[in-house]
Amino acid sequence: MTNLVVHDLHKRFGGLQVLKGVEFEINGAELIGLIGPNGAGKTTLTNILDGAIKPNSGTVYLNGVRIDQLAPYQVAKVGLGRTFQVTRSFRRMTVLENLYVPAMALDRGYSKARIAEKAMEILEFLTIDHLRNEYAQALSGGQQKLLELGRLLMHDPEVIILDEPFAGVHPSLMEIIYNYINRVNESGKAIILISHQMDSIFTLCKRLLVLNGGVLIADGPPDEVKRDPTVIEAYLGTDEDEDMHHDAQASQA
Ligand SMILES: Nc1ncnc2c1ncn2[C@@H]1O[C@H](COP(=O)(O)OP(=O)(O)O)[C@@H](O)[C@H]1O
Ligand SMILES: [Mg+2]
User: Fold this and answer.
1) Which of 13, 32, 35, 189 measures 20 to 30 Å from 82, CA to CA?
2) How many other C-beta atoms are found inside a 10 Å radius of the C-beta of residue 93?
């Protein structure tokens, strides 16, 4: 069973203390929402978990393997993958080639035929199979987000972090991303979903982590978190739903 243990993470950029002792644990294929105001440290936490940056102190273990000092490709091999708030595909490669790269780079021992088959299954599911021979740079912003979700599955990670997958996405693609999250989660993968879209968070997630000013101020079932006075105060209001909603709109602007 997947086990991620995040212990007492601290991260500083110059004089700015961005994470102040973040701790949580994931056991099994949980679907967890990570929310918090802009600047709370959500992306910084993701960057530490995937090995892009190193914490000043604290540890991260995935299935007993310490990953906080590893490079991103090593973390991917151990089994954690993420998408980026701003997509990062290989723009001068085709859609299919973009999917082949992570599968081959990680060398999971799949045959080329199996990789090709898997890539097509993923593209069909994401409804971009007709774009398979287009250069990634020709895709719309939303389609690039879908491609990034597809690339992630080629890694076959056990833990997936999705950094704002709905931001800037055309409403017609929302349902595809919803289905992706549910299906990937049901296939046994743990997912951390970062989003300002409270509707999607409350529909999809069974557990919420709330980060505010680099501190995890809540960790529990959405209904409880919603009523938590500390959380309500962090969102600066009396009606938590409405204020979370305002925050979402501000972040989309
Ligand atoms: N590389 C960096 N150098 C300096 N400051 C940074 C860097 N990355 C993030 N920050 C700062 O850290 C804080 C948290 O940012 P971030 O993790 O992106 O928050 P969130 O994703 O929750 O909006 C912000 O104040 C941001 O400006
Ligand atoms: Mg962010």
Assistant:
1) 13
2) 15
